[in-house]
Design a protein that fits this description.
single chain; globular
Length: 461
């Protein structure tokens, strides 16, 4: 006979929600993650779980995430009476888990077909965005140096160079073709080779730090490609692992770069408070001051977006100005890390447009989106070019310029050819939603763009 789950009942009471409200919130998270089996959750399901019936594992994970978001703190399965064993706690952050173990485990999960399917339906964990204490950052390099190597592979400059070359290849491919295409190949390389190097033996501390930085950048690109493929929780986990590797490399500028990416993802998913926390962390502890000018501009403009999203107009405007100054100081021949190669005037204009849009300045946003389109090398940055045009059309519709939006979206759909990206798919969905009120009016440009957007949403065969 099932026993009442008093822990779950207590957690629900803490939210202040009714069981009906909790069910509706779970469905919203399920829609976000594409978890079809949870889309039918109702008050009756919540009542059964409180009465002692155990939800399926995916439903339990979504229930935990929904409660975490409402309560503003990580909620574990054990805390809501759903842990199958005493160690079945929330693995969203895992800052104290051995980095190499976490890297191998995530890689194996991602390569296993069934586990990959489950990961794809896992909710983005807001609780997993909580950062460790200052002492953790200070102790990270020592933990890495103390990692047992046994008879592990001897790692030197050749391995560091190999990881950097492979990372650059996938980073450039991502910009052209999107995060869906090639992502699995990069993740397999990380599992097969990068993890082996991380667990290797090093001739010097300088070599170890160089390898850990290279590994962190490879894992970061895997996270970015997962984010772009709309595999948001998988992306968050790779970002967290990249951040751990950067900390263990004592590479503070790289840590800021990864925190900026995590803030960008949180912004796109609508988590304003968490995005600002991450953005503020990206400029702390020397992460901004030790970065080169181009990277400072990148970190700073994403912070501007987070500030704008939280209604901090004055600070957001100041951050835009500082980012412009930082980028103007970047010059050819600067000793820059490869990871910032993509951030140029077009990227700054794109992010500035988003910031102004969040502040309600549609004219300013449109002007900067146009600048971004004009500056960008479309052949090398096909994915971002298409996404920028998608946003630009959305601003034009918001201004009441339907025909101009259709022209812009037609260009966006042209640019999407050959790109496999969750963000270009989102752009096509936005087009269809915005054009929906005009479908029955017999406007030829609307019908054409709507049909093309619908075709772009069909699965690739």
């Amino acid at each position: 006979m099932a026993h009442r789950n008093v822990e779950l009942a207590s957690a629900i009471a803490e939210t202040g929600w009714s069981q009906t409200a909790l069910a509706a919130a779970m469905v919203r998270v399920a829609v976000e993650t594409g978890s079809k089996e949870v889309l039918t959750v109702t008050r009756s399901h919540i009542a059964m779980w409180v009465a002692g019936t155990r939800p399926r594992s995916q439903a339990a994970a979504l229930l935990r995430e929904t409660l975490s978001r409402r309560l503003g703190r990580p909620v574990t399965l054990a805390e809501i009476g759903l842990a199958e064993r005493s160690t079945d706690a929330d693995d969203s952050a895992g800052w104290d888990t051995d980095t190499l173990t976490a890297l191998v485990d995530l890689g194996r999960d991602n390569m296993d077909r069934e586990r990959r399917r489950l990961l794809a339906g896992t909710a983005y964990s807001v609780g997993g965005l909580a950062l460790p204490l200052d002492s953790w950052w200070e102790e990270a390099p020592q933990r890495a140096r103390a990692r047992s190597t046994g008879t592990a592979h001897a790692v030197g400059k050749t391995e560091v160079r190999a990881v950097r070359e492979m990372t650059e290849f996938f980073a450039r491919r991502d910009q052209r073709h999107g995060g869906v295409d090639g992502r699995t190949a990069l993740c397999q390389y990380i599992l097969d080779d990068v993890a082996r190097y991380v667990g290797g033996s090093f001739s010097s501390e300088k070599t170890r730090q160089a390898l850990y930085t290279a590994a962190a950048e490879a894992v970061y690109v895997a996270g970015w490609m997962s984010f772009d493929a709309s595999q948001h929780e998988l992306g968050r986990r790779y970002f967290s692992l990249s951040l751990k590797l950067a900390a263990e490399a004592a590479d503070t500028a790289l840590a800021g770069h990864v925190l900026r990416a995590m803030a960008h993802q949180a912004i796109d998913l609508g988590h304003a408070r968490e995005a600002l926390d991450l953005a503020e962390a990206s400029v702390e502890r020397g992460r901004y001051t030790r970065a080169v000018s181009r990277e400072r501009a990148l970190i700073g403009i994403v912070r501007a977006r987070a500030l704008a999203m939280n209604g901090q107009r004055r600070k957001a405007t100041a951050a835009i100005g500082q980012a412009e100054t930082d980028l103007s100081r970047a010059a050819p021949g600067d000793d820059e890390p490869q990871r910032v190669w993509f951030f140029q005037e077009a990227s700054l204009a794109h992010q500035t447009a988003h910031t102004l849009w969040a502040l309600g300045d549609l004219d300013g946003a449109l002007r900067h989106f146009r600048d971004s389109v004009r500056y960008r090398q479309a052949d090398s940055f096909s994915r971002t070019h298409a996404v920028t045009l998608g946003y630009m059309g959305a601003v034009q519709v918001a201004q009441g310029s339907l025909e101009a939006a259709c022209q812009t979206w037609s260009r966006a759909l042209d640019a999407m050819d050959g790109v496999q990206s969750g963000r270009t798919r989102d752009a096509a969905l936005t087009m269809r939603a915005a054009l929906s009120p005009f479908r029955s009016r017999g406007i030829s440009s609307v019908a054409e763009v709507d049909a093309r957007a619908q075709a772009a949403l069909r699965p690739v065969t």
